[in-house]
Amino acid sequence: GADSVIxxxxxxxAMDRKDEARDALAAFLADDxxxxxxxxxxxxxxxxxxxxxxxxxGHAGIAGIMSPKAxxxxxxxxxxxxxxPVWPLLETPAGVLALESLTRVAGVEQFAxxxxxxxxxxxxxxxxxxxxxxxxxALQPRRTVGADVEFAFGR
Length: 155
Known about the structure:
The protein has eight helices and six strands. By secondary structure, the chain is α/β, with parallel strands linked by helices.
């Protein structure tokens, strides 16, 4: 079986169906109180973040939050205030450049790298793979001082 299920409220849902998707997830969690999911919320600048965070705060079945286009410590801290594990998704050069400050946000459990989104903006999967390898190396010092931060490479 799967270790985790990620429910994507961002890229997988059309803009005019975001409320419907949140309502469907809330209904599912109400019907199955034992269910545990990670929710990929909408980006901080999407206009959908407040509604996503309200959903996440209101359901114990939401066991973690994947925060896309992670670029600023302040935005991640806002997500982390819910007290659930946060998985920042690095998908832009700004996110890669902010990595050091993002690792210091309390509640960040694991980083993920969105190679396809990174590639889409920069037209090079080879470049995206190289960046992912460098990110993994960049986190090595944090691991040696006992910081509980992991990095996952995904397409």
